Amino acid sequence: MSVTVLSMDEIINAICLHMAERKAVRVEEVRVELSWDEDTGYTAEVWVQGRSQFLVESNLIESILRYLHSEYGIRAYRENVRLELDEEITAVVTM
Q1: pLDDT digits (tens, 9 = 90+) for 31-52
Q2: Residue 49 DSSP symbol
Q3: Where are the chain's structural domains?
Q4: Are strands 3-6 and 30-37 parallel, antiparallel or unpaired?
Q5: Per-residue DSSP letters for 78-89?
Q6: What is the number of alpha carbons within 13 Å of residue 62 lying toward its C-beta?
Q7: DSSP code for 29
Q8: Which end of the chain has fewer CB atoms surrounding its CB within 10 Å, N or C?
């Protein structure tokens, strides 16, 4: 079994790339802030063209899956990705 760990910066990059593609804007126009809360779990607030949008964990994982495929050539599934919180939020991908 192989394990890939994405840092918080890589998760943010994944979300930026995904949202830029979905909103048809440049990556530089997307801002992301990740957070974890007992009530809502892992979320991200995303700003695109001055508008704010909240993403839930499943949206984050969707972005991570696309990033894994485009940047690492890894085809993973939702059940392969686990978000963890230590000093920062990371994504652990087990294959």
Answers
A1: 999 999 999 999 999 999 999 9
A2: T
A3: 3-94
A4: unpaired
A5: GGGEEEEESSSE
A6: 10
A7: G
A8: N
